[in-house]
Specification:
This protein has 219 residues and is of the alpha/beta class. Helices cover 42% and strands 22% of the residues.
Length: 219
């Protein structure tokens, strides 16, 4: 998982990044809105954490720009205000959730996990964004920017399976049952490992991690 933290309080931002690292969450930081929008324009993020009190600009403008770029990416607001009127305005204007400062880091992680899981389970979503790739479930296509990544049917089904079970470690048995709909026939086969190798060759080795020898996960 990778998140973008847009927060002008450098001490808070650095402490938050350290905590995210402890939870194996990669992050980029921006101390001003211009740098935040720039990073959001060139990288993919699973969630965006946005300080509501950035100087020089209305948070609504920043949130709107982020939402135009990332339609489904969760945006969590950090704020020192907590009136009902404020909350209604935030949630009605592109924000998905909020936390009032000072906040508990564990609660923030829980909210990020909840929002990203909800994204993947939303059946109305025909496209899934993971890292810098977009998976089009209707067209059965994977793209990176303007580039189309050529995957075979089995490669696409395997990649889709790993993404739909993101942050969950899948064994060979899990994958055979979800992609090949069979396990006993392939019990001693290395077919999954071969197709994982194919995907890594086309998408990059760092995307799919190996755990416990032959268990796989996309973070």
């Amino acid at each position: 998982m990778k998140v973008l933290v847009i927060e002008d309080n450098e001490l808070l931002s650095r402490n938050l990044v350290r905590y995210l690292e402890l939870k194996n969450i990669e992050s980029d930081t921006s101390f001003d809105w211009k740098d935040g929008l720039y990073k959001a324009s060139i990288h993919f993020y699973d969630a965006i954490i946005l300080d509501i009190n950035l100087p020089e600009i209305d948070w609504l403008e920043v949130c709107k720009n982020l939402r135009e770029k990332w339609k489904n990416t969760p945006i969590i607001m950090l704020t020192s205000r907590s009136s009902k009127t404020d909350i209604i305005v935030w949630l009605n204007n592109w924000a998905d959730d909020y936390l009032v400062k000072p906040f508990d880091y564990q609660e923030l992680i829980a909210r990020i996990d909840s929002l990203t899981r909800r994204n993947l389970k939303n059946k109305s979503i025909s496209k899934i964004e993971v890292w810098e790739y977009i998976i089009d479930l209707e067209k059965i296509e994977v793209s990176k920017g303007e580039e189309k990544i050529k995957l075979s049917t089995l490669e696409f089904d395997l990649f889709k399976c790993l993404v739909q079970n993101r942050w969950k470690v899948l064994s060979r048995k899990d994958i055979y049952e979800k992609v090949w709909w069979e396990f006993e026939e392939f019990m001693f086969s290395k077919t999954v490992d071969v197709y994982i190798w194919y995907l890594r060759k086309k998408l990059g080795r760092e995307m799919i991690e190996t755990r416990k020898w032959f268990w796989y996960i996309i973070n």
